[in-house]
Amino acid sequence: MNITFVRDDLDKEEEKEIEVDQGLTVDQLLDDEGIERQEVLVSRNGTIISGRHELEDGDRIRVFDVIAGG
């Protein structure tokens, strides 16, 4: 199955199509992409989701860096 993966960080936005296995979770996708789960928020089709969610064909996954200030 295919998904759209968008990495949206402070400096740039990178978008790519990825073929993934059925049953792959958000956490597994982040591991495959070398992204630390604690440092990002993830949305699927515009809704913030947890890492336990399984991906579905046609999903648009957007990864945002978490920013903290003080």
What does this structure look like?
The chain is mostly beta strands and 70 residues long. It has one domain: Ubiquitin-like (UB roll). 11% of the residues lie in helices and 40% in strands. It is built from 1 helix and 5 strands; from the N terminus they run ββαβββ. The protein has one helix at residues 26-33, and strands at 2-8, 13-19, 40-44, 47-49, 60-65. The protein has a 5-stranded mixed β-sheet, with no helix packed on it. β3 (40-44) and β4 (47-49) form a beta hairpin. The longest helix is centred in the middle third of the chain and has 8 residues, at 26-33. The radius of gyration is 12 Å and the shape is globular. The model has no long low-confidence stretch (mean pLDDT 93).
Counted beta strands? 5
- What is the CATH homologous superfamily assignment? Beta-grasp domain
The radius of gyration over CA amounts to 12 Å
| Residue share in β-strands | 35-45%
Q: What would the average pLDDT be, to the nearest integer?
A: 93
- The residue fraction in helices comes out at 10-25%
In CATH terms, what is the architecture? Roll
The CATH class label is Alpha Beta
Q: What oligomeric state is this?
A: single chain
List the defining traits of the structure above:
mainly beta; Ubiquitin-like (UB roll); 5-stranded mixed sheet; 1 helix; globular
